[in-house]
Write a structure and sequence with these properties.
Distance between the termini of chain B: 28 Å
Number of helices of chain A: 13
Largest sheet of chain A: none
Strand content of chain B: 25-35%
CATH superfamily of one domain in chain A: MetI-like
Shape of chain B: elongated
Order of helices and strands of chain A: HHHHHHHHHHHHH
Number of domains of chain B: 2
Mean pLDDT of chain A: 83
CATH topology of the largest domain in chain B: Rossmann fold
Radius of gyration of chain A: 25 Å
CATH superfamily of the largest domain in chain B: P-loop containing nucleotide triphosphate hydrolases
Structural class of chain B: alpha+beta
Oligomer: heterodimer
Distance between the termini of chain A: 40 Å
CATH architecture of one domain in chain A: Orthogonal Bundle
Largest interface: A-B, 27 and 35 residues
CATH topology of one domain in chain A: MetI-like fold
Largest sheet of chain B: 6 strands, mixed
Low-confidence stretches of chain B: 1-8, 379-394
Mean pLDDT of chain B: 85
Strand order of the largest sheet of chain B: 6-7-8-3-9-10
Chain lengths: 286, 394
């Protein structure tokens, strides 16, 4: 519905538009410089001007000898992010369902979980690392770092699930029970499908938070680096546009993750709005 | 009189025996005994919080009674699952699964029973056809109007082949026009399937329009369980008379009794009425609390010389304090000298032959046999009828 009023836009509209334009420029301006510079020619340097265009620095990135173990760090980060994603989704859904019953100490447990949002990440990492050391267990990216990252992703996941579940009508479950569904059938056929779009949001958070997590991972990942630590190392060692190539590649991965999440939500919505049961309706002699 | 009595063999008879339900400290339902014949359209009627939905949920198996038994066709079903009871419930919000098409919503019960996909969809479509929703089979619930959603919810419940269908305020989510239309459809579907319908509502006219049997409830107790006509025309208590509307309730203490007449008084107000004819053991005596109802449409209005004029027996005097045109009749509110209200429903032709104006003094009279004596209920009389009050609201 459009307003009937067709007069001029107020001055504040232009002021806020300019402000928003500046914000977008500030957000994407410096990054675009990095993306452009990553296509620097083989003889080019870290700054403008461009000396030709090439994919030379992307090639350099994947050849270990010059720039460190980028491919290994990237693989580790991807595996770790997927592990964090799966655990965050599973635990958040279960915790969300559990918190619907006001069990004894629910508020305490909730604040305990959410407190790690305000805890300094480096301290959490330090604590986890120290604990492993005390216990005589080596810190590993897939063990100690995984746990440290979950302290960061779970509160987000849980808060999202709480918001999703607060809009979830319990009558759906009662109706399903009324229609003869067992608890397990109710969960699989009614609760999970209705919560699914929310779960994708949790998955996206879990993945991206883990993928660029630095402070909690620094002291818990053990001998092998994850990607953010590799990048950090490179900013101090590498003095070539390979650094920019790295920035371009990681940004691309982030965009792919977001596109996958949004795309899957769009696909679900399309599948839910398209006519179903075409097969059986085609059989009917109408 | 109850049409349901004509088919006593029908399945789905329900009996509540001494049922009490407590939620912590609060008592939602107090020691209720109720028998609903099979194949009956029964409305549970009462204000919000009166316990009607709790009763429905206990019959459905979504709540367990704290005390007492729920019997369906003579068998105690407490502790059984809804499907084992042969009940199906239609929720107030309909609770259609938003991610499933109408067909799959209706087929849900068949899916839980392991019926193969093609067959269950075919059977769901047959059921959709019976509620005239076949052309919407592939739609999602969000793409339907309120009335259409309700038919899908009905089909989803009926496919379980229940003995008893439980409807929790099924019409409250609809607008006025649809409500009247769906009300008729519910009645038709009940007649077609021949099963017991128990319908919770807080709307009096909805209940009496639909039900073979109306159960009026208040504060977790049954005030009256009878045919729609009895509940409206012959309310048992002052509460029912007030709640159903259409009645003037006169209440007070009997101050004298002579030549077949009572004088009942409350405050400064005195009214002479004909006493009940048959003298029984429980016949009221001087000093008793007494309540009597007179239907608003059985009251005749005549002009009075003044508001102080003596009305005589079976009459009240007052001043016109409200005139509402209702099409075929007019609702005339009268306020007596003490400020108490009384209502007369006057046919439009009668009214317009000699229209009354606001403030006109009038006498409202009724015949002795229009008096309906109410059962005084201890503890409740004080709440509703300690004054000579007519239900002026609604």
């Amino acid at each position: 519905m459009q307003k009937l009023q067709t007069g001029k836009r107020p001055l504040s509209f232009y002021a806020l538009s300019i402000f928003f334009g500046l914000f977008v420029l500030f957000l994407y301006g410096p990054m675009s410089a990095i993306y452009i510079l990553s296509f620097q020619g083989p003889t080019g340097g870290l700054t403008f001007p461009m000396r030709g265009w090439s994919l030379h620095w992307f090639d350099a990135l994947f050849s270990q000898q010059r720039t460190g173990d980028f491919a290994g760090a990237f693989t580790r980060s991807m595996i770790l992010a997927v592990m964090v994603l799966l655990l965050t989704v599973a635990i958040s859904v279960i915790a969300g369902l559990a918190f619907r019953r006001r069990f004894v100490g629910a508020a305490f447990v909730f604040y305990l979980a959410v407190a790690s949002l305000i805890m300094p990440g480096l301290l959490v990492g330090l604590g986890v690392g120290l604990t492993f050391q005390t216990l005589g267990v080596q810190t590993k990216w897939f063990a100690s770092a995984l746990g440290a990252q979950l302290t960061w992703t779970l509160p987000f996941g849980m808060l999202i699930m709480f918001a999703v579940l607060s809009r979830f009508n319990r009558a759906y479950e009662e109706a399903a029970r009324d229609l003869g569904a067992t608890n397990w059938q109710i969960f699989l056929w009614v609760v999970l499908p209705i919560l699914f779009p929310g779960m994708i949001a949790v998955a996206l958070f879990g993945f991206t938070l883990s993928y660029d997590e630095f402070p909690r991972t620094l002291l818990t990942s053990g001998a092998a680096n994850t990607l953010p630590m590799e990048i950090w190392g490179m900013t101090t060692n590498v003095t070539s546009p390979a650094l920019y190539a790295l920035g371009t590649v990681t940004t691309l991965v982030s965009f792919i993750a977001i596109a996958l999440a949004l795309g899957s939500i769009a696909i679900i919505q399309w599948r839910r709005s398209r006519p179903v049961g075409n097969v059986s309706s085609a059989k009917e002699p109408e | 009189m109850n049409p349901a009595d004509q088919r006593p063999a029908a399945r789905g008879s329900i009996e509540l025996a001494g049922v009490t339900k407590r939620f912590g400290e609060t008592i939602a339902v107090r020691n209720i005994d109720l028998k609903i014949p099979g194949g009956c359209y029964c409305c549970l009627l009462g204000p919000s919080g009166c316990g009607k939905t709790t009763i429905l949920r206990m019959i459905a198996g979504h709540e367990s009674p704290t005390e007492g038994a729920v019997l369906i066709d003579g068998e105690n079903v407490v502790g059984k699952l809804p499907v084992e009871r042969g009940t199906a419930m239609m929720f107030q919000s309909y609770a259609l699964f938003p991610h499933l098409s109408c067909t799959d919503n209706v087929a849900f019960n068949l899916k839980t029973r392991g019926v193969e996909k093609t067959e269950r969809r075919a059977r769901a479509r047959d059921m959709l056809d019976r509620v005239r929703m076949k052309s919407f089979a592939d739609r999602l619930p969000a793409q339907l109007s309120g009335g259409q959603q309700q038919r899908i919810a009905l089909a989803r419940s009926l496919i379980t082949n229940p003995r008893v269908l439980l409807l929790d305020e099924p019409l409250s989510a609809l607008d006025e026009f649809l409500r009247l239309q769906m009300r008729g459809e519910l009645r038709n579907i009940q007649a077609e399937f021949g099963i017991t319908f128990i319908h919770v509502t807080h709307t009096q006219m909805e209940a009496i329009a639909l039900a073979d049997m109306v159960v009026v409830m208040d504060q977790g107790q049954i005030e009256q369980a009878a045919s729609a006509r009895d509940v409206y025309d012959r309310p048992r208590t002052g509460y029912v008379a007030h709640f159903m509307g259409g009645q003037n309730v006169l209440a007070g203490t009997i101050t004298s009794r002579q030549s077949g007449n009572f004088t009942i008084a409350s405050g400064n107000k005195k009214i002479d009425i004909t006493a009940p004819r048959s003298a029984t053991a429980s016949s009221p005596a001087v000093g008793d609390q007494f309540e009597v109802a007179v239907r608003r449409d059985r009251v005749r209005l005549t002009r009075a010389p003044s508001q102080a004029a003596d009305a005589g027996v079976n009459a009240v005097t007052g001043r016109v304090s409200g005139i509402e045109y209702q099409g075929t009749w007019l609702k005339i509110s009268i306020e007596d000298a003490c400020g108490e209200g009384f209502v007369a429903n006057v046919p439009d032709d009668q009214f317009f032959a000699d229209p009354l104006k606001m403030g006109d003094p009038v006498i409202a009279r009724w015949d002795a046999d229009e008096l309906h004596y109410l059962v005084a209920r201890p503890g409740r009389a004080a709440a509703n009828g300690s004054t000579v009050v007519a239900a002026a609201g609604s």
